[in-house]
Amino acid sequence: MSENISKNENQKKQFDEEQYQILRRCFEKRDIAGWNDWRKVNKRTNVHLEGANLSCVGLEEANLSRANLQGAKLFGANLQDADLSGANLEGADLRRAIFTEKI
Fold this sequence. Notes:
With 103 residues, the chain is mainly alpha-helical. The chain has helices at residues 17-28, 32-41, and strands spanning 5-7, 52-54.
């Protein structure tokens, strides 16, 4: 599934490759807590994942608060219990994204 995480080449303006790689490594290790720890240490750092392809990615409980996810591909992503407070989701593809637990 790691091939699902990639950057949309049309969205280069603010995209932060280093942040993207940190999130990607944490996803591949199934360690979203690692991403959340990075966010705690880097509280003042703005997260720029504009245009990122995060389709079908497990981001359960991920701290994405105040993240710029404008134009991101989140098709089928698992965002259950993710913190999206203040996140910019303008133009993001949220089709089939999972926000709540399946019953």
